[in-house]
Amino acid sequence: MCHLRNLLLVIFFILIPVQVSAKELIPMGQSIGIQLKLPFIYVSHDILLPNGEWLKQGDKVLAVDEQEINQIQQFAEIKEPSALRIERANKEKVLNLTSEEIQNVLPFLKDETDGIGTLTFLDPTTNEYGALGHQIVDSALTTPPPFIDGAIFLASISQVKKSEPGQPGYKISIVNKDRQRLGNVLFNNVYGVFGEWEQGLSQSLRQPMEIMHDSEIKRGEAQMLTAIEGEKVEKFAITIDKVDGANIVFRVTDPKLLSKTGGILQGMSGSPIIQNDRFVGAVTHMFVEHPAKGAALSIGEMLKKSPK
Question: Which of 20, 34, 53, 237 is at a distance of 20 to 30 A from 8, taking alpha carbons?
């Protein structure tokens, strides 16, 4: 009888539920410039050469006079006629360029991908950040670019081109890369850009906020954090109209934001969404024909693709 009582006592303690605190993140909203350093040089626009040959957008520069190059600076140092070996559609081709043609081609070559977006969250426990809510795809390469290094920098909004039905607007931003970078870039995947925050936790940052699980997100009032003037992050009213698992459809209702931007702009991707003082998700897309409407991804789903 004593043994049975001890057994029941053990089972009782095993079945007691353990309270696990919900994960907390700092919602951000700052506009950022993103720089990805590529392992090769590529052509950013079609170029017609004087001899009738073309350099095509997306061509990769492999070598000059059989010497491999992968940085713009190496190309800029060429001062004499040279044989340029390129890769186009997985096939190699050699073009003979004069020294003048080399200098004329130089402004159309790139060895990095740059973009503008919005910082979504900072994890105060791991010092990891997440941004954008979707993958960066290089417009010239038409693919997510491979990269060997990356960084994010604070951007200042100097002007806004308002969205109109059928014509997405955009933020005109100034990115000062001479300023200390905010963090590195470790991953560029389907749910955004992720990396390590390098600036410490400033007192000016918002307090950590409990994340809301997908099943708890409700239709109704919410807020979006984003910057539309300078570096200032503001809170704007939105209404969540539809929740389908991790996918959210919302519309901008804030009079100031509608007047200034027409709704969602290019560059707002990654803007945090808050509901009932909990962290809901990140803006990912706009409806082109209805710019006041946007789509978002739940923060829980976004975290599934983060590096930690």
Answer: 20
Query: Tell me, what's the pLDDT at 101?
Result: 87
pLDDT value of position 8:
33
- Which residues of the chain form CATH 2.40.10.120? 24-37+113-303
- What's this model's pTM, rounded to 2 decimal places? 0.86
Any idea how long the chain is? 308
User: For 259, phi and psi rounded to 5 degrees?
Assistant: -70, -40
232/28 Cα distance (integer angstroms) = 11
Query: How far does CA 17 lie from the centroid of its chain?
Result: 39
Bridge partners of 295, per DSSP, are 249, 285
Q: What are phi and psi of 4, to 5 degrees?
A: -65, -40
Sign of the dihedral defined by the CA atoms of residues 204, 208, 214, 220, in that order? negative
Q: Strand, coil or helix: what is 294?
A: strand
Distance CA 153, CA 247 (A): 28
Arch. (CATH architecture) of 24-37+113-303 = Beta Barrel (2.40)
